[in-house]
Amino acid sequence: EEDIKYIEEHIKDKKIVAIGEIGLDYYWVKDNKEKQKEVFRRQLDLATKYNKPVIIHSRDSIQDTYDILKEYKLKGSMHCFNSSIEMAREFIKLGYKIGVGGVVTFKNAKKLQDIVIELDLGNILLETDSPYLTPEPYRGTRNDPSKVYYVAQKISELKNVKLETVLNQTENNARSLFDLDFKV
After folding, report:
1. For residue 127, which phi and psi values (nearest 5 degrees)?
2. Are the CB atoms for 82 and 103 separated by under 8 Å?
3. Which of 61, 6, 10, 67 has its CA nearest to residue 33?
């Protein structure tokens, strides 16, 4: 209750561009799924009420996450996406971008790399997930936003496009999704 109240009290602050990271996580605890869904829906209700995009966390819960998001007409980002190309396409149809972070640089991330190859750059957002999931060549160290460059570099390599193209398109994706208006 305190967290929901806190979100609502601060949602109109100019620096608040989305509600997130919210969602479902069945990895650590499996006996509170219904409570997680209830809280998730309340957060989505706030996003709807205040017309804010959402940043979605879904771990070992992709189908439940999708089923709930289908009930809403929101846009947002599927943070640290780790599912199938088919699910990526379904989330995109709902209005979500696919968040790609350091994992895409890992040698064993073939599935995510294939998804990146398949998706249009217009559907991808760059992420850090700091302090976790640091991209190669810094894997194993603390992640921070400066390392998102390596994510863009890997996407450029996978899609066989110029790095500048990846940087420009993903910046435009973020600006559009989060209604950002600032000069770099």
Report:
1. -140, 160
2. yes
3. 61
**106's tokens:** 């890992």
Neighbours of 21 (CB within 10 A): 15
- Report the amino acid identity of residue 110: K
pTM over 0.90: yes
Predicted confidence pLDDT, tens digits, the chain (184 residues)? 899 999 999 999 989 999 999 999 999 888 999 999 999 999 999 999 999 999 999 999 999 999 999 999 999 999 999 999 999 999 999 999 999 999 999 999 999 999 999 999 999 999 999 999 999 999 999 999 999 999 999 999 999 999 999 999 999 999 999 999 877 6
User: Any bridge partners for residue 54, and if so which?
Assistant: 19, 76
Sign of dihedral through CA atoms 165, 90, 54, 80?
Answer: negative
Whether residue 76 contacts residue 44, with contact meaning beta carbons closer than 8 Å, is answered with no
Q: In whole angstroms, what is the distance from residue 100 CA to residue 116 CA? A: 8
